[in-house]
Amino acid sequence: MSDHLFSDLKRLFSLILLVLLLATPSQAAELYVGAATTDITPKLPVSLTGQMRTRIAKKVESPVTATALVVESREGDKSLEHAVFVSCDLVCIRGGIHEAVREKLKGKVPGLDLKKVIMNATHTHTAPTMIEGRYTLPETGVTKPAEFVEFAAQKIADAIIEAWNNRQPGRVGWGLGHAVVAQNRRALYEGGWAKMYGSTSVKDFRGIEGYEDHGVEVLFFWNNEDKLIATAVNVACPAQAVEGRSAVNADYWHPVRETLKKKYGDQLCVLGWTGAGGDQVPRPMYRKSAEARMMKLRELTLLEEISRRIVNAWEEAYAGAQQEKHADPVLKHEVRTIELPRQIVSDEDYARVKKEVVAYADDPSKVWIKNWKQRVLDRYDAQHAGTEKPYEMELHTLRLGDVALATNDFELFTDFGTQMKSRSPALQTFVIQLCGPGSYVPSERAVRGGSYSAIIESNNVGPQGGQVLTEETLKSINGQFKKSSSD
Question: Which contacts (CB < 8 Å, 24+ apart) does range 211-214 have?
Fold first, then answer.
């Protein structure tokens, strides 16, 4: 056979093979969705966390809940990828609750990768305490932190199982609205120093320290009957409107959920995702009298006013998302542990904090503050002994169609979230903070200004670690958006 004839036959064979491949029916990946909500309000009285003082709640102003969302990509009966999100009305994901939930799920959910269960807190400061010894509590008559963790972990595990078993073919959409919720809570003064919640009416006030992100990123999930069954709402602000009260309260997420359910049905599961907002608060830093007057004229409480703004932004996003519903989006989920450098304790900070620990030692009402400062001394000793290890964080990044999602453990200052969203290749990027025990990660300018949230007591991980987190997050997202033959 001549080389010319062999070459012609080879080209013909390749052409026939291509035609056969194109003619063979192929099944595209299909999205499956499941959701469930559970009440995690414990038996009263109960200790509340989020302040430096002991508070015992004897009433419930609004229940604290946990909402589970399962998203899965399938090809026929084969599961290709999945993720489980759980939004919790808690201050942080601490006290071993994440580990307890995963432990309770072992062997009960065939096909579920426990590493892909993500929990986040809305950061309400009127939710139960989860760490023993954080406050001085009565010996009896109060639900203890360990009791709450056990109770809530079981309820959350049951909700995940329910959501997993409820998976059904569905569609997803994404949208963007805007709402003035987050307001930077760090006031700047002449000389460059700053103060959280500092007065803005004094002579040496010079401005607000940082940026405020008023974007509201939203995901929507429908079943095949076009019924809206779940939505995830990403607001770059913690739920701290009523943080000082001594009653159980889910803060502004409760009226948001109730308003949306009233309009779209009780079947709607609403997840609150707190974006990068470690330097934010949902209360005004100035124009306070004007804001109060307008709420009075509207006959709204602060929680109702914030809810009104978020729901309006949600409706803006919904109007667009309804026009583009995706039944077969790309779903990629990467889980890995990253190491972040810890903030170094200076000799000056050590000397200052050591004196303060001694001053608080004999006052049981100051146990939170004493322990908070003692941890700085322990870190200093570990750093000088060479035994301190980097902060290990479980990083989740996901691609869902055109959007990206990324988690972190912290109260991450908004500057880092802005970087992630601006540099991400995704159409929209959802940053979900407080997926771990918390602690602030401040910007460099905040550290220069000082004050609570940007001092060594507040910062296990500092600006350097925040930048490492940003780069690692973007590296993972960029990898998920690289074009491949399967896209």
Answer: 211/184, 211/414, 211/415, 211/418, 212/182, 212/183, 212/184, 212/236, 212/280, 212/414, 213/182, 213/275, 213/276, 213/277, 213/414, 213/417, 213/418, 214/178, 214/179, 214/180, 214/181, 214/182
